[in-house]
Amino acid sequence: MNALESTSTRPYLIRALYEWCTDNGLTPYVAVRVDEAVQVPREYVKNGEIVLNISYDATSGLQLGNDFIEFKARFAGTSREIMVPVSRVMAIYARENGQGMAFPMTTDLEPTDVAPPAPSTRSEDAVPAAESEQRVVQLVAVDEPQEPAAAPEGGGPKDEPPRPPPSGGPRPSLKRVK
User: Fold this and answer.
1) Rounded CA gap, 67 and 175, in Å?
2) Rg of the chain over CA atoms, in angstroms?
3) What is the largest CA-CA distance in the chain?
4) Tens digits of per-residue pLDDT, 46-90?
5) Secondary structure of residue 150 in the 3-state scheme
6) Which of 47, 77, 110, 155 could pair with 53 in a Cys bridge, judged by C-beta atoms 3.0 to 4.6 Å apart?
7) Cβ atoms of 11 and 64 closer than 8 Å
8) CA-to-CA distance for 94 and 165, rounded, in angstroms?
9) Are 38 and 83 spatial neighbours (Cβ–Cβ below 8 Å)?
10) What is the DSSP string of 72-106?
């Protein structure tokens, strides 16, 4: 297998950052670009994006696979099945300090570059379409407060809004650094 045939690094980086967040007592969030391939509650989608809390406390049956992130979460007290193609994850970061990683999103993605598994079975042999070359972008906190680009966070056990960091300073925000 050569470099052009290798699998995407995105699912491995998502799993690594999820583990880093949980090991450090932080809350892992993922920002997702929503289209017809993404199974999330549409009422929480804003500007084609949603931010999901994927912490152990907020999810049930979390599976961070190579093709999909799947779990159950409560939204306004109702349990919902969530399925996100890994190719639609824009970023994973810690809620408390904003540290994490953003992934490049290409505008030429097909609506479904990976066929979702059937609702009652899991497809272990689904083959993702070739992804464009990825660049890793580090997220850093900025001094001036900015409006977040993503939708309100969902999936928390009580659907309460995130609290600002205990430092009393401005809330961390995402900024792309090249």
Assistant:
1) 26
2) 16
3) 51
4) 999 999 999 999 999 999 999 999 999 999 999 999 999 999 999
5) coil
6) 155
7) yes
8) 11
9) yes
10) EEEETTEEEEEEEEGGGEEEEEETTT--EEE----
